[in-house]
Amino acid sequence: VDDCTRECLALVADTSLSGVRVARELDRLVAERGKPKMVVSDSGSELTSNAILTWTDQSRVAWHNIAPGKPMKNAFIESFNGRLRDELLNETLFTSLAQARVALRCWRTDYNDARPHSQLGWKTPSEFAATFNPRRDLALRYAESSAPAPAATTAQMGTSNRPNELRSG
């Protein structure tokens, strides 16, 4: 899933997914969409394999693994995965890989082309991606930095914040 456009770029069904298989899929996506600056993933064995380490080194794409047991570090994809499970995977008994692949393709098309997303101004991911201009749309939200202003001011070197400190009785 592209975190920026919210597009589901690929859903892969197979009997197993090795690091080599994931790298092959990433190569296909790079050929279609261009090279991302970074990939964020969980720490699954297929995503921490030598094949993926080799792929990141050769493709020069940064790879960030979220800490095991910390799904909140990648909340959007966790929400996406939950939606996919609830709407398709938990509801369907697949009898073949071909059936699973067709169902995933249909679900992905529906997700990208028919579902408006609140974070995209109620556009579908495909609509948003078609109008997205990274040079214009990724301007910083805050003039001074990319973070909001702090809740409290920091003390200057050599001065005290004593008037702002709580007094205990």
Description of the molecule:
The chain has 169 residues and is mainly alpha-helical. The protein has 6 helices and 2 strands, in the order αβαβαααα. The protein has helices spanning 19-33, 50-59, 75-89, 97-114, 125-131, 134-137; strands at residues 38-41, 62-65. It has a two-stranded parallel ribbon with strand order 1-2. The longest helix has 18 residues, at 97-114.
Brief descriptors of the model:
mainly alpha; two-stranded parallel ribbon; single chain
Question: Would you summarize the structure shown here?
Answer:
The chain has 169 residues and is mostly helical.
Outline the fold blueprint:
Layout: H1 19-33, E1 38-41, H2 50-59, E2 62-65, H3 75-89, H4 97-114, H5 125-131, H6 134-137
Parallel strand pairs: 1-2
Total number of helical segments?
6
What is the topology, as strand order, of the major beta sheet? 1-2
Structural class: mainly alpha
- Percent strand: under 5%
Largest β sheet strand count, sense and barrel closure: 2 strands, parallel
Helix content: 40-55%
State the order of secondary-structure elements, H for helix, E for strand.
HEHEHHHH
Rounded average pLDDT? 83
Poorly predicted runs: 137-150
Shape: globular
Number of strands: 2
Question: C-alpha Rg, in Å?
Answer: 21 Å
The N- and C-terminal alpha carbons lie at a distance of 54 Å
